[in-house]
Amino acid sequence: MKTVIIYTTKNGVTQTCVEMLAPQLRGTETEVVCADGTNDAIVAAAAASADAVIIGGCIRMGKLFKPLRTLLAKHAQAWSEKTVGCFLCCGFADMAQNYYEKAFPAAMREKAVSGYFGGELKPEKLQGLDKWVVRVVRNSIINENNHPDAVSREEYTRVLPEIIPENIERFAGEINRKLYR
Fold first, then answer.
1. DSSP secondary structure letters along 85-110
2. Could you read off the pLDDT of 45-76 as tens digits, one per residue?
């Protein structure tokens, strides 16, 4: 069996999640391809020869990163005929289901194993406007969850979004069950 993981990443969070996911897919040759908009033919060829296709990426401004949206528009129909998994990396758990429904075509969602892997808001990994926006959002989250008994600002960073390893493990388990039933 062959599984291909197709993903996009802007700041490395999705890549980290994929690195956690790939070793958990048992009994399968796993190929990992980062869709960057310049390698569509390589991505399509890898997916065509696979038994399972896992597609995922980060949400930016409410949408999947553009290279993955482009690939989905071209290949969703063919990929839906395989064992398929779709996942999102997003810092806002309360919006994940809404983003998922907008990001992936209905025919694919109906058949897919779905996953939400969490996200990160780490301004130190960013540059320019992205860094400024993440700082504002991050500080807003920390301040919302702050209270008068606060010992330190660092104590409240635990309310910030994080990658959720348990969700990645659960997703891998569901893919494994579908492939080896």
1. EEEEE-S-GGGHHHHHHHHS-HHHHH
2. 999 999 999 999 998 888 998 899 999 999 99
* β-strand partners of 58: 89
Question: Nearest CA to 64 among 131, 120, 9?
Answer: 9
Rounded-to-integer distance, Cα 170 and Cα 162, Å: 16
pTM of the model: 0.83
The answer to whether 118 touches 167, Cβ cutoff 8 Å, is yes
84 Cβ contact partners less than 8 Å away, ≥ 6 residues apart = 52, 53, 54, 55, 108, 111, 112, 113
The Cα 97–Cα 118 span in angstroms is: 12
d(CA 118, CA 161) in angstroms, rounded, equals: 7
- To the nearest 10°, report the CA torsion of 13, 157, 164, 4: 0
Bridge pairing between strands 113-116 and 83-89? parallel
Say what the alpha-carbon torsion angle 10, 4, 170, 123 is, to the nearest 10 degrees. -10
Tell me 164's DSSP state. Answer: -
Report the alpha-carbon distance of residue 139 to residue 153 in Å, rounded: 10
The encoded tokens of residue 134 equal: 């993440």
Q: What is the pLDDT of residues 92-138, one digit of tens each?
A: 888 899 999 999 999 899 999 999 999 876 666 667 777 677 677 76
Question: What three-state secondary structure class fits 101?
Answer: helix
Q: Which two tokens stand for residue 160?
A: 């910030």
